[in-house]
Amino acid sequence: MGRVIAIANQKGGVGKTTTAINLGAALAKQDMWTLVIDCDPQANTTGGLGFPKDPARRSIYHALMHDVPMQDVVLTCGIEGLHLIPSEKNLVGAPVELVDQPEREQALRKKMGPLRDQFNFILLDCPPALDLLTLNALVAADSVIVPVQCEYFALEGVSELLDTLIRIRRSHNPRLAVEGILLTMYDDRTNLSHQVRDDLRDFFGNQVFSTVIPRNVRLAEAPSFGKPIFLYDPECKGASSYLELAQEVIHHDQKGIGARP
User: Fold this and answer.
1) Residue 87: strand, helix, or coil
2) Angle CA 227–231–237, to nearest 5
3) Beta-strand relationship, 3-7 and 143-149
4) pLDDT tens, position by position, 33-49
5) CA geometry: angle at 6 spanning 228 and 115, to 5°?
6) pTM metric for this prediction
7) Which of 68, 93, 94, 73 is nearest to 83 (CA)?
8) Backbone phi, psi, residue 4, to 5°
9) What domains appear along the chain, each with residue ranges and CATH number?
């Protein structure tokens, strides 16, 4: 059965979508059959994997709200082994439509069930909010990757999110673990990046990934071309960093590693 990993942080601009796209691609390049599910109505992951807006295309919204089998909305991406369930703007209404349904926080987990045996990894790209869509992703997940930008308030934001994960474990998903805290947009030239890295590692210990994702122009450019970094510039530092991250995630999966919040 495949491992389901949510990529979540209530703050925007911390690298969730970049991580969903490029970690998914890196896992696929490591011969891991990988599915990325875009749970954000902004659909940036969908566009970043090469699928522009298309009102006729079925999406995660149709699977959640119109009983379309989730297998029927899976798309094949440009890297062998990498697949996508796309998002669209209508998903913004899903929390309102779900709110009166019984077990509304379980909707994604139930719909996703048949896919778990078809993939080694399923990555859930969450919106930048602790809303019902994010709650659905966290209830469906085995673990969470928390991308953290190297900035002044990083520690405070991570602590708030981990408090939320503890509440979700108590009420909805007792198996939910922290896959790891991921430092993104790391600039080795600045004292602030060093300080944030050291503070997070001092406070959270081995919950912080060894891999750090550098601030990298090529990583920032790739989504505008609808390509993972491995199709845009496979020799850049960003590409090598996501390959290192994929190896850490695979190692965690093989060893059964998953830290509790």
Assistant:
1) coil
2) 100
3) parallel
4) 999 999 999 999 999 99
5) 85
6) 0.94
7) 73
8) -105, 120
9) 3-255 (3.40.50.300)
